[in-house]
């Protein structure tokens, strides 16, 4: 991740640190190969603690914390390669503004039921324990149930894909495969959640005329 | 999400790649840019 290194070099005299936090249910062993060329401290959040607290449903994200320990920026879909994102951080580092909101929207999940989201979080944590004990199928069952409760959560969705199909994530990530996988899964989930809207021809948006 | 602007960051403690426990408290008093990512 050269962009980060370059950015840090340019601004490191401003009393700031970069902390990399990797999310992976399987922890350090899985993350290490990807963090090798990173000169920053990398921590592992294997239970989605940060994501669940701040409402992140996808990565990559950034949180900027000022010297008083308060949030000056929180951005789902942050990229150091994007000029507007980079410039926002520079403004914060230079103390030009106390807080910044970035206007671009990376992902708008549809509203989730609070209790269902909480149950999904619990299932995720249970899945992690199963995986630690080598009970992969039990873990996947919990994750499959979690995605039904929090269908917009890509941290859960993609983690399942990675466990089932690690080969799709080696080297260049197979985006087409992911799109197809998402489409298939969304249809399956709609059938389970709203069977009256689905037939063997696929699912229909409620209120529209069936062909 | 923007309702968290101006609030204190939550107290978290995670392990680094060598298994050491690191707390967000260790970074108090510095500007900190946290970058969250995944290998997938």
UniProtKB/TrEMBL annotation, chain A:
SUPFAM superfamilies: Thioredoxin-like
CDD domains: TlpA_like_family
Signal peptide range in chain numbering: none
TM spans (from-to): none
Keyword presence, Lipid metabolism: no
Cross-referenced InterPro entries: Thioredoxin-like_sf (IPR036249), TPR_rpt (IPR019734)
Keyword Nucleotide-binding: no
Ranges of the TPR repeats in the UniProt entry: 120-153
Domain of life the protein comes from: Bacteria
Keyword tags: TPR repeat
Protein name in the entry: Thioredoxin family protein
Organism for this UniProt entry: Alkaliphilus hydrothermalis
Automatic annotation (TrEMBL), chain B:
Domain Alkyl hydroperoxide reductase subunit C/ Thiol specific antioxidant per the UniProt entry, residue ranges: 6-40
InterPro entries, per the entry: AhpC/TSA (IPR000866), Thioredoxin-like_sf (IPR036249)
Protein's name according to its UniProt entry: Peroxiredoxin
């Amino acid at each position: 991740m050269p962009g980060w290194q370059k950015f840090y070099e340019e601004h490191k005299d401003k009393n700031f640190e970069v902390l990399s936090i990797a999310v992976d249910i399987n922890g350090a062993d899985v993350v290490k190969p990807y963090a090798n060329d990173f000169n920053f401290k990398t921590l592992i959040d294997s239970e989605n603690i940060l994501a669940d607290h701040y409402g992140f449903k996808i990565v990559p994200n950034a949180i900027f914390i000022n010297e008083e320990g308060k949030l000056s920026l929180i951005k789902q879909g942050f990229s150091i390669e994007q000029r507007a994102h980079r410039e926002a951080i520079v403004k914060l580092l230079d103390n030009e503004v106390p807080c910044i909101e970035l206007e671009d929207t990376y992902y708008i999940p549809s509203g989730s039921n609070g209790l269902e989201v909480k149950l999904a979080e619990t299932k995720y944590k249970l899945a992690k324990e199963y995986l630690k004990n080598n009970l992969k199928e039990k873990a996947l069952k919990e994750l499959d149930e979690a995605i039904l409760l929090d269908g917009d959560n890509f941290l859960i969705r993609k983690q399942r894909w990675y466990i089932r199909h690690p080969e799709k994530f080696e080297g260049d990530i197979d985006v087409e495969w992911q799109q197809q996988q998402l489409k298939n899964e969304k249809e399956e989930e709609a059938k389970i959640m709203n069977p009256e809207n689905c037939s063997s021809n696929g699912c229909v948006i409620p209120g529209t005329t069936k062909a | 999400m923007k309702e968290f602007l101006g609030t204190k960051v939550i107290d978290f403690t995670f392990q680094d790649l060598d298994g050491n426990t690191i707390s967000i408290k260790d970074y108090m008093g510095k500007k900190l840019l946290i970058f969250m990512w995944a290998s997938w």
